[in-house]
Each structure stands twice: as structure tokens, then as C-alpha cells.
Here is the input.
Amino acid sequence: MFNSLGQFFDGGDVLDLYAGTGALGIEALSRGCERAVFVERDGRATAAIRENLRRAGFVERAEVVRADVERALDRMLTDGRVFNLIFADPPYRIATEVGDVLSRLGALLAPGGRVVIESGEAPAGGIRGKKGVTRRYGGTFVTILERSEITMIVAVCPGSFDPVTVGHLDIIRRASKIFDHVVVAVGSNLRKQPRLSAPERARLIEKITAGFENVSVEVMEGLLVDFARDQGAKVVVKGLRAVSDFESEFEQAQLNRKMYPELETVFIMASAEHSFLSSSVVREIASLGGDVRGLVPEGILETVREIYSRPDGNI
Ligand code: PNS
Here is the structure.
């Protein structure tokens, strides 16, 4: 691993997160990095890092921070620090916790720098977008990411999708061309009584978006702002069909921004041919025996016809 990173040790600063004994940062110092910052929460481990630095003669070139990684990152971002090389050897699953940390590392990385993530398991899509190069060294997987691969813009596309229409699909497709990753969030509008459960609505969307590499579908429970935070998303993307949509969308966007000021709501104008289309007209037409072909994606037409034509006294 160190051999493949050779050029990055030519001066520059290294950040060793979840540093443990500090082995990675100390090796980087010995290979030519100028300065190193070690972040480790455990008191005994930070004492060990200090001792190892003393023995290696690198005390002057190192800073040991005893703190949670997330808190330490926030402080370094505020201080405007940059690093040429960032090591992260998290003691837990890459797919979950490190995703949130990773999204902050881009801002700490100098142009041309690299983030190196060590893990006991293959990333298997855990690093969203599956970018970077992963190599296996015995039981350890090492993923090397460039700055452009980390500063990914994740957008959440929320809705009730009861059912998903060709208009929704058009917005999801167009959003997937703008943003690095789009998470379709199947939520529940408390003012509406959905015909299908959220997991069933999500399954229909998964079926029609299976061909989009950078789109995933999740059930959203609770607040959109909390969901967006969990997903590392800084953007909410919504379709806007007509002025009549604006008032409620404006209200939601303002409230969401109040709760999560960094979250931007972005609107994509619906295509003219979808300006009349909504899930509620699909439900009404289907329940009254009309044909919904052309209104819902072809791949789920039969399912929608079958489920939504059953009268339940609600549209
Ligand atoms: O397709 P819809 O019915 O317009 O979708 C509405 C949805 C699900 C996006 C909205 O109700 C929502 O965001 N629900 C999550 C709960 C929440 O955050 N409510 C506060 C919004 S201001």
C-alpha cells in the first residue's frame, strides 16, 4: 500500500484518523511527509502514539488529538486545515458510519491528495458511487479515493409515490444526471392515507430505477431533514408542475431549511407532458376502471392496474 502511494510522501501533511498505535502516520512521516496529525479517542492509544513518536524521533513534526473523529474533523474544517494524505482505519463497518465522515474529508484534502481507507471487509458499494480503487492485502481491503470521488453531491428525492408515475420517473432520471447520487425517499405524508405500504411503494420504484447506477431507494421514516442528514445529503430535489404546487413546496422548503440550514431544496420543472399528472389522478383513473398506460412506467403497469383498481373508498 505504501509503495503504491509513493509520490504522496513528498512533503505535505498527513492526517491519521482512528490512529490506534499511529503506525500509518508514523510510516508516512518516515517516508517524507512533513507533518502528521493523529486523531484517536482512546486515552491509552494516544499515550502509545506519543511514545511511538518519541521513539521514532518525530515528536516535533506531529500533533496528537485525543477526540472523536467527527468532532476533530469539524474543528479542522473550521481552522481551514488541509492534508495531502488522509488515512482512515475505522473500527467499524465502512458502509454505515464512515460514509458520513467521508463526506467531510473532501474539504480537508489538498488538490491532488488522497484518502486511504482500511477495512477488514470489502466496500461492496458501501462507499457510495463505488468509486476509488480497492486492493486486498491478505484480510485487509484498502480503498484509495481522490478528492473528486469524495466530494460527491447526494440528493434526496422525497415523495409519497402512491404510486410512482412517469412524471416522478422523469424527475428522478433528470436528477440522476445532475447529482452524483440520488436517494429516492419513500415517505408518508401524514395528510394522506397511502394505498400501499412504504416498503411496497419502494419496491415498485426499485423495479423501474434498476437501470440507474446512481439511484437508490429507501423508506423514509420521520423527518426529511433527519433522513437527509443520515444519508449525507445536502440537497432535496423535487419536481414542480405548476404554480399551484409552489405554495406547499415553498412552505416545506422553508421549514426544512429552518431545521437544517445547510440543506438546499432544488426544483426541477416537470416536462410539459407531465404537468397534469399526479399519483392521485392515477389512483382515481385506476379505481374507476380507466386505463393508466402511459401514466405509470410500463414495468409496473400491471401491478398498478391490479392494486389500484380495487376499490377501497379512497383515492
Ligand atoms: O409526494 P408528497 O405527498 O408530496 O410527499 C410529501 C413528503 C413525503 C415528501 C413530505 O410529506 C415529507 O417530507 N414527509 C416527511 C416528514 C417531514 O419531514 N415533514 C415536514 C416537512 S416540512
